[in-house]
Amino acid sequence: MPGSLLWATDVYGRAFVLHTTGGCWERAKDAQLELKRVTAAEQCCWAVGSDHRVYVHVLPRDTPMRHQEVTYENQRWNPIDGFTDTLLPTDRWQWTDELGQNSQPLHSFHLPSENWEWEGDWYVDDESCGRESSATGGWEYAVDFPTTFSKEKKWNSCVRRRRWLRNRKYKAWGCWAKVPLGKGRPTPEHFSDISCGGWEMSDSPKKPISVWAVSQQGKVWFRTDVKQQNPEGSVWELVPAPQEVTQIDAGPGHLLWAVVWDGRLLVRTGINKDCPKGSSWILVDPPNKAGAIHIAVGVNVVWAITKDSKVWFRRGVNSHSSAGLGWISVGGELVMITVGPNDQVWGIGCEDRSIYFRHGVTPTEVTGKAWAAVCAPLAPTNRPSGISLFSGELTAPSQGSVLGCDDSDGGAPHLPKIASENFISTLVADRPARPEGTQEGQQPAGPFPETPVAPSSQSRGAERQWSNVDLEEIKGSSAVQSSAAVFPIEQGSIEVQEELPPWAWITGGGCEIDSNMHITWLEPPDTEFMSPSDSARDDRGYVAEDDSHEGTVSVRKGVMCWWRDWKPRRWEEVGVTLEQVRGGGAEPDDILYIFYTHNEQRKYLYAVIKEVTAVVPMPRDSMCALAIYTPERTKQRWPVLLATHSQQDLEDWLSLLSESCQESRAPRGAPSKRALWAVTSKGDVMVHEPSSSLEAPTQYLPCDQMFWRQVPGHLLCVESNSLGVVWGISYEHAAWVYTGGCTGGEAQGDEINEHTLTDIKNIYIYENQRWNPVTGYTDKGLPMDRHMWSDAHGHRECTKENTKPPSPLWTWVSDWAVDYSTPGGTDKEGWQYAADFPATFHGYKTMKDFVRRRRWIRKCKITLAGAWQKVPPISLMDVTILPCLAHSSLEQVPVWAISEKGDVLCRLGVNTQNPAGSSWLHVGTDQPFKSISIGGGHQVWAIARDGAVFYRGSVSVQNPAGECWYHIPCPPKQVLRQVSVGRTSVYAVDGNNNLWYRQGLTPSYPQGSAWELISNNVCKVSVGPLDQVWIIADKVPGYPAESSGTVCHRVGVQPMHPKGSSWDFGIGGGWVHLSVRGNSTEAQRAAAPSPLPSRNQEQVNGNMAAC
């Protein structure tokens, strides 16, 4: 990056530049000019001098800087004289601009300042009409003003015009040139601060630049028409501000921040390429009570310094949010700070007045890692021999000088802290000569002003010796004048290396540094980074970095598709940024931003990761999508849907967001024994770590605030208990047991717990046909019919060619084939018949059946790595585990299951050390079953495939398989399909999604007496060891558009009120299974007496407290 310069000024007002390819600070020209503030762009640098005027320094370059003045000569035709300068009263002026709105005669054009010169005289633009001037004279013709002009003269051409040009060239290269105030405008007050930016807002080759300034009265001014070809601009325009401003800073883009007199901050909004001055101000509170004193702005970053010299970073600043969201403390103590074009950061130390660079700033680590001193000396100066290095008289320092010597200092100059808003106001008032009272071996603390030096009066022929100087004599003398040592040298030239001066101001706007660049002056000789603070210093005056209280901000950016939930409902490409804050002694505080455009306005959404309750993959519209839930969006049934362009991107973002959520919520590692397990419709396994308030009778934790995290795996259902035994069933009906391995957080257990988990899923599509009298059943349907190849409901077209696996993680393992096991039966060709679409289909044809369909099946397979171990060889349909209390101690954990054929099985040898058990024990039945559940007292309930309900008697620890089945009547006219048994409660769900509660359960009559309807709209129920009741609801009342499957909690369940009172709806939309049978965490409350008398374990229901 040639021409990349770092500009700085010292406390004497001298300007220096440091090149990225150089190694030394070089003194800028115009040594007599004293500067207070500097601000730089790529090719220019602006400054405020000690006279409070604005100066500009344009770097030399190969291409001259020219500006072209343009005016148009207009004429009208009349029958006598032809085309003349005599125009009608309603016509434009003879000399105007292109639109004819302003009068622009040739003599009205003047040079804007003495920094410009004319290049020749006015001339006609011969090419404006496309012909040589000899043929056309540069004229363009038209019927009248204003209209479209053309190069051809026609019979009705009554007016004509031609363009005149004159070029002026900028001549003040490589020096400081005073910027004119602007003629015809009110003269601004004296300036105290200046900043430039905005060159990245426009893609125009002219590169317009926004120059802002602050006057001594606290007013904000904007310089118009500043660009690379016109660095001076035109005029100063006042921009009203709500309060008096002390300092201002503009970034390369749209950002503009200012500091007001009381330490608060102002943010300018509405800045864009069409409105560079912006539209309004936003008042922002300072980082702390001390108030801000300095602000620095980059492309998407804002840094601040408070009056106690602390450094702060503003989080949440971006192209859609200029004000940001909050402050992060960053280590170090600085007096001022500046940000470069690519957000690199420099600062000046508060105590040593040295320049520091923020090491480690990258597009992802926006706050960097540590402060490193800029190791660049001053460029050596050549002095002729015969001239003493130091000559003259030592005078007492003036009161206004910053180089005054403190008598108690031993000759070292004392540099007071200088506030950033007025740190140079007295530096130029009186500048004395440098005292020579430095001890032997001690280097001066700063450079000396360039003053004329006198030749030495000593003889040149004799050998010269060093003179001894009595510092105590000099220091203690009360006379104004005192002798000073003279050090003569031999004839010739000598290089003098001066020590770095105390710096006052620095600007990085013209210094573009990439994190991969090799820059010598940014590499300290040792490997330890330094920090400008008040801690113990090393021999160079630097301080080792102490980041124990320092926060760092890292960002991850990407482009994703976002589902807009309001009209027009569609996917839109948006920018996504995850901002992560670490360190500083605080908890992780991450924020996810989504930037979008609505009605040509830049807007954004954000979600605090601490408030995110779930990040769930949700393939939608054949896209790799994920859903982000928060409590508020769960209540609104409106999760944030984001989609990536590839499966790998989706996995990366899922991993990043899940890790961020876990770090913010602190549940890391394997799920606890009391975790709630759930499964989504896509097979993703989710867990929630319960708290004691989850089942509290009052002030319970709402379901929408439950945090769910994903566990690697793909299952159809999961069951658990409080001893940590977890079983799952996959889509291919294979049994899996959880081994407690890593779940994306800290390692829990050995790597051998990680196994390869596979699952096979069936993909179905339907072939539809309609009958007609001529050809019979064909694939030619009516216009209002469903697609001839569709899904089960006929809503989407699903052909063999366009039907893909659920996600790229799945692969096909079979070809398409007719499915003869379609529910409802089929004929020998796999067809089902009905009167019309949609209707109930059956497996035989009748005279009234005019449509038919058949289901095609294809298998796909997924392979994952997770802490699941397969339990061969029997395929299962349902599984249940004894829901015991947390303090229970069982040698063998009862596990019951139903095989794919409908057989009832009891697993033997299951314990916490061997959750998979050893073998299956077949329990005889007279018909196939489909659902089974065991309660806390070893009571086993099951449902047959025909809907009949059974209770297994005499099940106990000594007799784990029980003795016989007792038939339980079903609810009237209902067929049950799922049952769940808790400590003392039994709930069941029928085929119409109604939830039933079994009344009259007693130890003497464990079968109960009757069924009571509790609720409808229930897909599945899970009853825990505390008789807590949770369900998967079909729909949420009032939100019919939401997909089926919502987690719900029964509120008000107590020992004396086991049926509860109402439902609390939680996360939803695609959840199919829930197990709370491991949550035995009781709320802290007075123990309620059990409604059942205590019994021995040998009895049917067992001893509840001993489970």
TrEMBL record:
The superkingdom of the source organism is Eukaryota
Give me the stretches of Polar residues compositional bias.
454-466, 1093-1107
What lineage is this protein's organism placed in? Eukaryota, Metazoa, Chordata, Craniata, Vertebrata
Q: What is this protein called?
A: Peroxin/Ferlin domain-containing protein
Where the record annotates domain Peroxin/Ferlin, the positions are 64-125, 138-171, 758-819, 830-863
Keyword Repeat included in the entry's annotation: yes
PANTHER family linked: DYSFERLIN-RELATED (PTHR23250), TECTONIN BETA-PROPELLER REPEAT-CONTAINING 1B (PTHR23250:SF10)
Single GO cellular component term: bounding membrane of organelle
Q: Report the SMART domains cross-referenced here.
A: DysFC, DysFN, TECPR
Q: Which UniProt keywords apply?
A: Repeat
Q: Per the similarity annotation, which family is this?
A: Belongs to the TECPR1 family.
The encoding gene is tecpr1b
Return the annotated region ranges for Disordered.
432-466, 1082-1107
